Every structure is written in C-alpha cells, then in structure tokens.
Amino acid sequence: MTAALEMAAIEGGYEPGLPILRGASLSVAPGEIVALLGPNGAGKSTLVKAAAGLVPVWSGRVMLGGRDITGLAAHRMVHEGLGFVPQTENVFANLSVLENLQLASALVARKRRLDLGRMFELFPDLDRQRKLEAGRLSGGQRQMLAVARALVASPSVLMLDEPSAGLSPKLVGVVFERLKAVRDTGVTILLVEQNVKAALAIADRAVVLVEGRERLEGPAAELVNDPRMAALYLGAAA
Amino acid sequence: MLQLVADGLVVGSVIALGAVGLTLTYSILRFANFGQGEFMTWGAYFAVSTLAFVLAVTGGGVMEPLGPFSFGWQLIVAMLLAAALTAILALVVDWLLFRRLRRGNAITLVIASFGAALALRNLVQFLYGTLPEYYSREIQIAIRLVPRDVMGGLRVTPDQMLVIGLTLVLMLALQWLLTRTTLGRAMRATAMNPALARVAGVDVEGVIRATWVIGAALAAIAGVFVGITLQIRPMLGFDLLLPLFAAAILGGIGSVRGAVVGGYIVGLAESLSVPLVGAEYRAATAFAVLIGILLLRPNGLFGARA
Ligand SMILES: Nc1ncnc2c1ncn2[C@@H]1O[C@H](COP(=O)(O)OP(=O)(O)O)[C@@H](O)[C@H]1O
Ligand SMILES: [Mg+2]
Question: In whole angstroms, what is the distance from residue B262 CA to residue B299 CA?
Fold first, then answer.
C-alpha cells in the first residue's frame, strides 16, 4: 500500500554545511498515528519543518500519498493535503479565533474547505470564543485552534510538533483525545512528542530519531517497555 | 484657531496617507522604507503626465472645473492612473532591489531604500525639472464656514474639503480591506508570523506585492493632494518624510490606525504651532509631540506592548 507520508533519506539543515538531518527516513501508513520521538535536539522539529517546506531539503524525498512534494514552497503544501501545526506561535495571535479559521479556509480550494460549523462542533470551546483575539486564548484552547486551523484545509496528513508542550497533564489528555477523534475522521497523523508516555498511548507506531537519523521504530505497544528506548534517550544525554 | 485646525487636517490627511504605507511596509517587510516620500513625489508628477494624456485623449486640452473645485473630472482619472503607475514603480523597485536583499538584515534594506530614494528623486528632477507645477491655474473661492468673530473664523476651499473627505473614505476602505477580506487577513497574518502564514497557505511574496501596491497607491494619492492644495515640486515627498516617520512612530509603528491618528496629530501640531514658534519651526513641533508621546508610551499610541 502507498504510504500516506514517506520521508526517505532526508538530509537538510538551516545553514549549508551544517546538516541537522542526516539521512532521516520514516513512513506513515494511511489512517495511522505515528509518534516521532527522540531526545532534545535530535532534529524532530527540523524534520517536520523540512517536510512542510520551511527548512531546505538537500537530498532525499518527501512523498505524500505517492506524489513527490520535495522542495515545494511551504504555502503550496496545504493544497497538496499536508497540514502542519508548529510547536510555538502556532496561531495568529492578532486575529480573532474566527478570522484564524476563515483565513485558513479561504486560502484553499473550495472543495478542500471543511465547513467551519462542523469545525466548531468538533471544538465547542472555540465556538464560544469566536470573536476573541487568538492571543488571549488559554494554552489548551490555543492548541485546539492551531489544530482546527490546519484541519480546515482538510489535510490527508497532519503533522503536529509537540502539541502537549506547556499543557497540564489533564489538558494533554483532552488534546490527545481530540487527535484520536481527528484520526477517526480519516486524517493520518505524525505526532512529534517529548511526552513519550502520552504519545505512545495514542500512537500506533513510533519512530525514534537521534542526531538526525531514525534509530528505532516499531509498534507503540512494544516500544513502551523496550529498554532500548531509555538507552537512546540516555545515550543522547550522556 | 479654527483656521489652523482646518489647515492641520489637510496636512494631516496627506501625512496620514503616506504614513499608512510606511507602517504597512514596515510590518510586512520589516524595514523602514525611506523611499516612501518619493512615491508621493512620483505620484504627483505621474498625475501631471496622466492629466496631460487624459486631456489630449478627450480633446480640447483644457480642463473645465468640476462644480466648486479647481479641477475637472480629468484630474480624478489622472490621479487613479498615477496611483497605478506609482504602484508599478514600487513593484519594479522591489523586484530590482529589495527582493534580492530580503534574506539579509533590516539595516541593509534601510540603506538600500535611502539609495532608491535618492535615485528616484534625481530621476524626477531630470524628467520634470525643478520648477513648481500645478494641475490647475483656477483661482478657488474659499467658502466661509464660520464668521470671523467666532474663534478667528474659518474659510475652507472645496479642494481642501475634498482632500479631507477622500482621505477618510480611503482609510475606511483600507480598514475594511484589512479586516474583512482574505487579502487583508493574510496581510495581518504575515505581519504577525510569516512562517506560520506560509504554513497556512499564504503566498507571502504575493502579500508583499499587494503591500507595495497599496502603500505606493496611497502615497501617490497623497502626492496629488499636495499638488491640488499647494504645488508640485521635486522635494515634495522628501520634505514630508520626517513627518511621515513621526506619524508612524507616534501611532505605534505597524499599526494602521496609529498611522492615521499619528498623521492627524502631526498635521495639527505643525499647524497649531505656527503662531507660537513661527513657520520656520513648524516641523520641529512634530518632533516635540513625538518625543512627548514616546516618553509616556514607548511603543506609540497603538503599538503592541513589548
Ligand atoms: N532556526 C534554527 N537555525 C539554526 N539551527 C537550528 C534552528 N532550529 C534548530 N536548530 C538546531 O537544529 C538541531 C535540531 O533541533 P530541533 O529540530 O529543534 O530538535 P528537536 O525538535 O528534536 O528537539 C539543534 O541542534 C538546534 O540547535
Ligand atoms: Mg522540537
């Protein structure tokens, strides 16, 4: 079966001659939630940014549902069906909640647009805050808006960079439940996480990235108790 | 007193129109464009040429004044053509110069805009000469709105009223564009966070082009307004550059509302200070007001709190 998202031997980085990604590969099957794990500084954010067109890819391929999207301009990616929720500053703080969604919706072709009414059904908290400036939302609501903003363009694959960062354990649970609901609507998810336990709890599979390369991968249920996991995290810290 | 307020509103309209473009390019391209004043000058001179063109095309070669105004409908058409030409000029300058420097730092862009301003100013002198020009030689009768014994009285020409009125209409239209249209939301989104804007599907280069078009067109219209109410000179825009910056900074650089309010504050401050300090120092009062407001509100009236 064709992967929903496939990255093959990606090399890339912010400055020429300073590679951050050193041949990273991963593959996400349609309908899967895959967790992208790894120690701090491993290059997880850089890898998803490279796929999203925000960081140059020097070599390797990014394939979306079998189509080559390597090196496309970032603003073209939504039209291809790749959604991305960055880790920080992931909503337009100076626009209202409704405007954040209206903008994202207006930028994609009509047939791609998800009905905003349905979006507010999925995120009732946002419905009550339509007119509020997004910068005034609480951490959890802001994360919901960031996800909703990406979903409005009905992506086939959604990449999220640490959606649990800065949230209380209870809110992490709420956000992750919502991600499962999103997956159940048919969206494939690549989830970058520091919170290994929470991520493995909702993921089908996980990939561990260390120093810009994948070092371990397998079903989430098996990796939970895999001693190699701890070793990879500790190894990077040492 | 009333008279000075009215004069201040006319000057303030011109400054507001120019400062809005300045603040827009600042918030989207992230540099202070010292060429903004030259777009005013070019707009005013383009209108001299487009007016001659419109008059030639429509035959006759003379402009029949429209109602109480000093000019005919041909000047309105000429102004719109001049705004379009100035927008194209801005796009060309961006394409030749600024686009190549976007990856560098803001100082490079600022210095480049100094250079562009100098080149544009010299080019306009070369093409049009240094003698003042006028769109119309018609003498206009000022309308007395307030008798002389009430607060010094008030006489305003229809042209002046038109300038103030059109400026308000343009500012409302811009406000509508920024808050109600996809382009406007994309511009605000790009100003806030260009990387996220791209992720959301905004073509940032397209937004940049739209910003130049809007900023330069408004500047051109401001230049034509100066030509209507005063005269057209090669230094027209350069002489307004410092008030433009004062207005944009005073309002909070990046804020459109701030630039408009700042424009009128600077215009009024200049005008009202004339009887106090004399006409030679009117420009200095804008800076006194600027410094005073920045001491109270370091980010300007409508600036984001850091
Ligand atoms: N904008 C940037 N410019 C230059 N280097 C960066 C930038 N962002 C991250 N890096 C570097 O890239 C490496 C990987 O960072 P990152 O992808 O954020 O790791 P992770 O998300 O796995 O914690 C780090 O060494 C970091 O210093
Ligand atoms: Mg990261």
Answer: 13
Question: With 0-12 CB in 10 A as exposed, 13-18 as middle and 19+ as buried, what is A22?
Answer: middle
ipTM over 0.90: yes
Cβ–Cβ gap A104/B199 under 8 Å? no
Q: Is the pLDDT of residue A238 over 50?
A: no
Contact residues, A window 80-99, toward B, CB-based 8 Å cutoff:
84, 86, 89-95, 99
N-to-C CA span, chain A? 40
A82: left (phi over 0), alpha (psi -120 to 50) or beta: beta
- Predicted TM-score (pTM) of the model is 0.91
Per-domain residue ranges for chain B? 2-237
Q: Sort A18 into a burial class: Cβ within 10 Å, 0-12 / 13-18 / 19+.
A: exposed
Give the CATH number of domain A5-234. Answer: 3.40.50.300
CA neighbor of B215 nearest in space, from B22, B38, B40, B21: B21
Given a cut of 90, whether residue A207 has pLDDT beyond it is: yes
> Which chain B residue has the Cα nearest residue A154?
B200
Q: Does B102 touch chain A (CB under 8 A)?
A: no
Domain boundaries, chain A: 5-234
Encode pLDDT of B37-82 as tens digits: 999 999 999 999 999 898 888 877 777 888 888 888 889 999 999 9
